[in-house]
Each structure stands twice: as structure tokens, then as C-alpha cells.
Amino acid sequence: MASARQDFERYVQWLYQPDKQVPEDVRRLATLALGNFDELAGTSRQRNQRSTYLVGLLRRELGNTVAAAPTAAVEGEGDAGTWPWARLRHLTLGPFRGFRIAEPFDLSKQITLFYGPNGSGKTSLCEGLEYALLGDVEEAGNKRIAARTYLANVHDRRFDPPVLRATDQHGREVDVLASLDTYRFCFIEKNRIDAFSRIAARPNAQRAELIATLFGMDQFNEFVSHFNESIDGQLVLIGERQNTLAARRNALAADRTTVEGEAASQQVLSDEEAALAKEYAADATYEALRNLIGTPQAPGRLQELEGILEAVPPNVLGVTRQGLLDALDKARQCGKGLDAIIAALRAKSDQVSFKALYDSVLALRDVVGDRCPACDTPLDGQPHVATNPYQKAADGLRQLEELGALQDQQQTAETTLGKMSRELRQMFGPIAAFLAAQDEEGTATGRWVAQLPGEPSGRWWSVIYPKAAAAEANIPSLDEILAVVDHMAAQDDATRKAQQDRQPHVAERRRLSEFLLRVQAQNLKRQQLKENVEAAMNRIKAFDDTNAELITQAEQEKLDIARDTPFKAGYDRFLEELRTYRDQLPEQLMAGLNDAAKDLYNAFNRNDRNEDKLSALHLPLAGDGKIEISFRGNPDARLDALHILSEGHVRCLGLAILMAKAKSIGCPVIVFDDAINAIDNDHRGGIREAIFESDQFAQTQLIVTCHSNEFIKDIQQHLPAQRRGSCQVYLFRHHDGNYQPRVAGNIPTANYIAKARAARDALNDREALAASRQALEMLSEKTWRWLGSHDQGLLNLLLAGVGAEPGLRNLCEALVKKLRDAQTFNHANKDPLLTAYGQILGIPVTNLVWTYLNKGTHEEAERDDFDGELVETLVQTLEELDRLDLRPGR
């Protein structure tokens, strides 16, 4: 978190600027936070960790914190004239990360290239430079690992700070003192470019950290984001205990009012009770009303009414003398009527027989059908009956209709008599119940009534009505039965009278019951008044003792509120200023980089069509701003770069911004920590040309780590001849068992011209010719690209087939022809190119030179030595060609 600390220190310094109108408490808070930065950075906003820690810190130490700017003033960004040194000279690394023992590195060249497989120590080298220049390694902070633990060699468990020496502007050797703020933009890392391209794929709302990530300020962004919106929850700002105590004191005042108003309250209750008594009766008193209601110990009128109403009178039986006599008479009359009908039927007895016969014959018609039911003779045909029996029966029945009517009357009379018998029997049910209730079941009447069946048959009443001529021993007389009925009627009269008298008692009881509830409510009021007064008196007496702790806490709370209230205002302003400062960082970082970053981006994308290159680049000046671009094909349209550009182009844009920033502040050295590998192959040529071949960074020391051997080789091939001697190459290989990377610093140059010269100087003509052949291929490609930059790149070439590459000689001849035919193209390189290619092609003499070039690439046994003078001429010719400035556009 060293970079975040440095940025926060700059923020604190910014707060102390004279033109900042910031309260002293805010500045003291910022100074206190800076003094405890590591502990503060170890907290987060989850569960209010940071605000809890910060509030504790404020309470303990803010009062003793001096409102003064940090003693170590933040250095401004250097420029070409104020950097403490001009070029790095030497690095000694180890024990440190992957280096177990001290390893020396010569960094005195303008370009130092490190290459080797992954895991061979390149990252440890870059981290060693990072620690020596910045005083910290960012990756350790990202992984939340203590610096000494992260940087120590795991096998030796030791860590020695790297020793970095440099040369100042006067050529003196000096020690490099780490300064995060001074050298932070000297590093261009693959991880930052990768992160930049990933953030570009996020929604707009999540791109606020875009620039911070690119410039390695994401740790500061994260640090700021973990401050809670408010620390109110951890402060004492509201007097909760004071409010509680005040509420209790208010309740105590209410208690005093309750005690002092007891007599008045008693009088109110007495008035209510007097009004209640008068509501019952105008002349009644409350005490008389209570006596009427009574109690279990002293029963009153209410209890008396309860006793009266609890005595249930017998049911009304409903049997009277006249009713019984009428029922008996009706039964006797029904019997007489039935007897008369039976007598009439007896007088027609012979007719009754014929009627029965006729009915039987007609009933057999549906069964027998068309035959006589008596003799089975057919009714029709031969033989047949003399008289149809069914017709005769029907005619006879019509003649006996009067007899049928009598029979129907008999059935009706018998039904009516049965009904009257049942009704009469039902009247004797209440009589039996009455006798049982009177314990008179043993009397003659009781025994006779008891033996009556539920459905008696015949004329059973005839033994009692009308009066029998001579009474039988077990049958009561009608008078005895009527005497019982008279007793029943007298009981019914008494029951009806009791029911009539019951209603006033019910109404009186209901009214007294209602007043009972109201009297009980009055009693409850008096009881509650008594209890409230006693409780209030007890609370008044015990208040100070009961609330002693609360009183102490309320007093302390006053002090806490007075202490914490300024913290709230200070923190809110501190956070506002901190976020304002963070939001201003993009403007500070990006100011003035638009044109430089645009030119670098176009140089990186040299192979894009001209209309697809940028005409303008607008970098954001606010944290939530967009990177906008305009293309040469439509310069008036400003587009969101991260929406339009491919991932490869976005990576190029990130690298261009970082390079422009380093260039703008005049960084004396730029360290590429595997950054080239973050760029796709299509753009590496343009990047190599813009950084290593152009003059933009000719005065900047370049240190490159890369695992691509081809890219390292290409850098050496295309370096301008005048800068080729200021390039050092180191090869890293995996350890051979001692856990120390194998470092080789005497790697021969990969430049073909240099290799050809070295082989010729060693009289190794075959190797010189092989390198010359490769050099000619490289120089011819460079010449072709150079011609293309001057609109002369269209060549006529012969190809051996589909997909075949043009032959080298064919390419050389096409280049010469193009130069000769371009009559209007005049350039200082034109004649030297024609001369050099003329010698290489063997013109006007034989093609001996080209023959040598071809033989130099093949192994031949027992052949004559090459002509050394011719080989020397060839190498010199290539050296002259190499010295030409064939960079595009030159």
C-alpha cells in the first residue's frame, strides 16, 4: 500500500495549502490518519470496520495531534533538468525474491534487454528495480503480504535491499535514493495494461477506476472507497440517556401531581358515586345502592331476586274438565255414527256378497284375458260363453253404487274414530305425569291410566264414559278422573300467575346487575387511585437511588456529545475533501497528454489504414469521464474509445498514455516489466519502431524484460546504427539446482550486420556470408517499407506459386528498378541505395557476389576458400546500406 500512502500524503499536503479554506480539525484528522495509515488501510467499510477504528483513534489522539503539514514535503514531479541522476549504472540484486545470492547487472547502456523463459527471474529483476526506485513493491501490497516476507528469498529466507547506482549529469556515480512519488511513472507493467483492457469491457458505471488502474493509483482509489459514508453510528451525538432521565423526571413530576391531587380525585369519585345512586333512584344514596346490590357476606335485594328466579314453577299441563268431557263426547258420537253405518250395511248383506264377487271378477280380467275366469271358455269365437262375465260384473257394480258409498262411509268413520281415540289417549298422558308428581300412582285412577297402552284399541273409554251403570273394582269413575283434572287445572292457574309475577323480578334483577358492574368499576377506580398514590409516593422517595447509574451515565453522555460532535463535522468535511482530491487526480495525471498519446498510438498502429488512425484524442479530466477519440476518416465525430476500439487497440492506447506520461515529465528511465507481452503480435512492430527506432526516446534509458526471443532480436536488428553500440542484452535461464537464476550478460549481438563484421574480422567468411544474407533480407524489407512511406512501395515481383514469398534476389532487383524508374522521386538515400544494390547484384560484372551469398548459407565439404576481398566488399556494402536512415517517413 506504499503507493496509496504516498497519494494520501499528497492529499494531506494539499489540505495544508494556504489557499485551502479547511477547518483546523479537518487538517488534524488528516494528519492523524496519515500517521496511522497502515492500520487504517488494513480496515474496510464492511461492518463499519474503518469508521470504528477511526473513531477510537480520534477519541484517543486527535486532541494531541498538531495541525501541521507532514515534515516530509511531497516532491514535485521531476523534469529533464531536475532529476537527481541522468542514467542508471549498476544494480546488485540478492538475496531478493528469486535471487538467492547477489547478482550484478550492468545498466550503463541506453538500452538493456532481458529475455528468458517464464520463471527464470525476470519478474524478480523488475521488482528489484521497483524496490530500489520506489521503496516498495506494489504486488506485496496487493497480496496483503508484509514487504520483508514477500521480498525475502524463500530458500535463504533473507532479504537484502537492492543496491542501485547511477550517473548524474556531471558523470559522477551516485546512489539512487528511493522515491515513490518521483519514479512511480518510470514503470510500465503488463498487469496494468491487462487491467486497463479488462476495465474497458465493463459498463460505464464501473469505469471510474480506469485511469487510476492504468497509472497504478488503484490502491489509493480502493483506500478512499473504504471510508464509510458516515461515522455517526460510532459517535455519541444524541442524548439517549439524558432523554431517558428527562422522561423519568417528567414521570416523577406526574407522580407528585398524583399525590397532591389525591383529595380532589377522591372527591371526583364521590361525586360520580352520588350521581350513580341518583340515576338508580332519585332519593337513593350510594351506600343504599350498595346495600341493594349486597355481597356474599351481606346479601341484599339482588341475592333475594336470584333466589326467587332460581325457583322454576311447574309447566302448564293444559288439561281441563270441559276439554276432557268434550273429547269423551266426541269419541262417543263417532262410535254412534259408525254403529249406524254398520247397521245399514248389515241390511244389505246379500248385496255385499255380490259386490265382492263383481270386484273379484273384474280384478281377474288383466290376468285371465279373453277367457271366462270360472270355466276357461273363450269369450268370443266357437265355442264361446253365453254372457261376458266381465261385462256382467261391471253392470252389477253400477247397480250396487249405494252399497259402495256406505262402505266408504264406514272406512271414514272408522278413521275418524281412531283419530279421536288417539287424541283422547294423549290427554291422559299429562294426567299420568301429574299423578306421578303427586305420588298418586297407586290410586285407582293412577293404576288405570298407567295400564293404558300407547295405542289402545276398541272403544276403551266406554268403561268410564258415559257413567257406567255399575262401577268395576279396577276402573275409576268419571268423577274421580275429573277430580284429578280439576287439581291439574288449579296447578296450571298457579303456574300462570307465577310466570306473570316473574317478569318484574327479571327486570329488577337486570337493572341491579347493570348497576353492580358500574359500582364495581367505581370500586376499581378507588383501588387504582390508592395504588397509584402509594406507587407514586414510593417512586418519589426512591428516585435518586433507583436512577443513580442513569444519572451518572447522563452526565457522561453530555461530555461524550460535546467530544464527538466536532468529530462528525470534521469527518464529513474530511471525506468530502478526500473525494474531491481523488476526483481531481485524472486531470492532474492526464493534463497535456492528448497529442503525445495520440501520436504514439498512431505510431503503434502504423499498419492501420490512414482513415483508421486518430485525428484527436481527448483524455478525461474527471474520474467518471470518457476517453474520446476522433478518426482521420471523420475528424468531427467524437466517440467513446472503449466502445469503438478492439482489445488490441485498447492495450495500445493504454501503453501510449503511459509512455506519453513518462515522456511528459522527462523520466530518465522507463522500465518495461513484461509490458510488450501484453500487446498482440500485430502491433509489436509499430511499438518497437516508435520506442526503439524513433528519436522520441533516444535520450531515455530503456530497460526491457521479455520472454520473446524474436522481439529482442528484432530490437537489435532495427536499432539505428549509431545507437546499436549502446545496447546490452542479458539472458536468463532456469537454475541448475542451486535455486539461483543463470544470468549471462555477454550475449553476442543478434544484429546481422554486426555478426557479419565480427565473423569477417575473425576471417570466418562462411559465417560472414550467412549473416550477410540475413542482413540483406532485413535491409531489403526495411528499404521496401521506407519506399512505401514515400508512396513508392508498389513493386512488381515474381512469385513461385500461390502463397510463396518473393525471392530475395527478385526483391532486390524490384527495389533497384523502382528507384531507377521513379524519375520524380529525389531523396538523399536514393543514389546510395542504387550503388549498394548494384554492387550486391553484381552489376555490371558477373553475379559472383550473389553466388557467394547463396553458398554462404549452405554447408559444402572440401571447397576452396572464399575470396576474402569480395566478402569484405560485401560486408562493407551492407554496412554502408545499414548506415542510411531508412526509417519510415525519413
Describe it for me?
- The structure is a single chain.
- With 890 residues, this protein is α/β, with parallel strands linked by helices.
- Among the domains are: 87-211 and 647-744, Rossmann fold (3-Layer(aba) Sandwich), CATH 3.40.50; 321-476, no CATH class; 752-883.
- The chain has 33 helices and 13 strands.
- α29 packs across α30 (808-821).
- The protein is elongated, with a radius of gyration of 64 Å.
- Residues 73-81 have low confidence and may be disordered.
Shape: elongated
Low-confidence parts, pLDDT < 50 over ≥5 residues?
Answer: 73-81
- Helix percent band: 55-70%
Number of helices: 33
Largest sheet: 6 strands, mixed
The whole-angstrom Rg is 64 Å
CATH topology of the domain at 87-211 and 647-744: Rossmann fold
How would you classify the quaternary structure?
single chain
Overall mean confidence score, pLDDT:
84
